[in-house]
Amino acid sequence: MNIAVIGYGKMGKMIEQTAVQRGHRIGLIIDLDNASDMVPEKLKSQDVAIEFTTPATAEKNISVCFDANIPVVSGTTGWHNRLEPIKQRCLEENQSFVYASNFSPGVNILFALNSRLAEIMNNYPIFTVNMKEIHHTQKLDAPSGTAVTLANGIINNHDKYNNWHLTGKEQTGSDSIPIHAIREGMVTGTHEITYDSEFDSIILRHAAKNRNGFALGALIAAEFITGKKGFYTMQDVLGL
């Protein structure tokens, strides 16, 4: 495949390296120094675009990919409140789009386990849930998009919880899941979900060792979306 890499930070460089290892070609790289190349005319010759940029630019970048009628894979987090219009446009125009707050195969297995555990714990009100996520100090959004996805997985499967909040911020009530966001060192990403009672604790935990799993997942998603139409998540890509 010819791949357009949109955003050439740490993830963009890792995606470039992984793509070449998997036999693909990087046909276009878009970054701050050539942002003017982010136009449909430049993108149309590519088979798929992989977008890892910023919350302020993701929506526009994906829209330009739709204008070029090429499949797009996006892993930018921090803009999930504006995802619905993009999803609607994708479906209305028969575009091709994969969105995930985290492309790591391991994290997506965690998502599936988290949702199933929430279903089980719905029957055991003696347990209360809390979450913790730890990332490097350069991460812009808090809580992480992965933490928000995990919280929503609980909310969708547990009658007690209807919201989430960052610890240290105003709590909305006992129906809100507390998320403790920590920024320290060069931590790639750690997420914990804890169900706690006066008798015991149950903990789901995922710790990323490096970024390689994120890049691999994004390339697997790009390979998956080629030739397909519609809106997909990493759960669809991995058959979860």
Describe this structure in words.
34% of the residues lie in helices and 25% in strands. It contains 8 helices and 11 strands. Strands 2-1-3-4-5-11 form a 6-stranded parallel beta sheet, with helices on both faces. A 5-stranded mixed beta sheet has the order 7-8-6-9-10, with helices on one face. With 240 residues, it is α/β, with parallel strands linked by helices. The protein has 2 domains: 2-103 and 212-237, NAD(P)-binding Rossmann-like Domain (Rossmann fold); 105-207, Dihydrodipicolinate Reductase, domain 2.
Topology (elements, then pairings):
Layout: E1 2-6, H1 10-21, E2 25-30, H2 40-43, E3 48-51, H3 58-67, E4 72-74, H4 83-92, E5 96-99, H5 105-121, E6 128-135, H6 145-155, E7 163-166, E8 176-183, E9 190-196, E10 201-207, H7 212-225, E11 230-233, H8 234-237
Parallel strand pairs: 1-2, 1-3, 3-4, 4-5, 5-11, 6-8, 7-8
Antiparallel strand pairs: 6-9, 9-10
Shape: elongated
Low-confidence stretches: none
Mean pLDDT, as a whole number?
94
Number of strands: 11
CATH second-level architecture of the largest domain: 3-Layer(aba) Sandwich
Please give the domain count. 2
Strand content: 25-35%
CATH superfamily of the largest domain: NAD(P)-binding Rossmann-like Domain
**SSE ordering:** EHEHEHEHEHEHEEEEHEH
Structural class by secondary-structure content: alpha/beta
Physical arrangement of strands within the biggest beta sheet: 2-1-3-4-5-11
Helix content: 25-40%
The CATH topology annotation of the largest domain reads as Rossmann fold
Main features:
single chain; 240 residues; alpha/beta; Rossmann fold; Dihydrodipicolinate Reductase, domain 2; 5-stranded mixed β-sheet; 8 helices; 25% strand
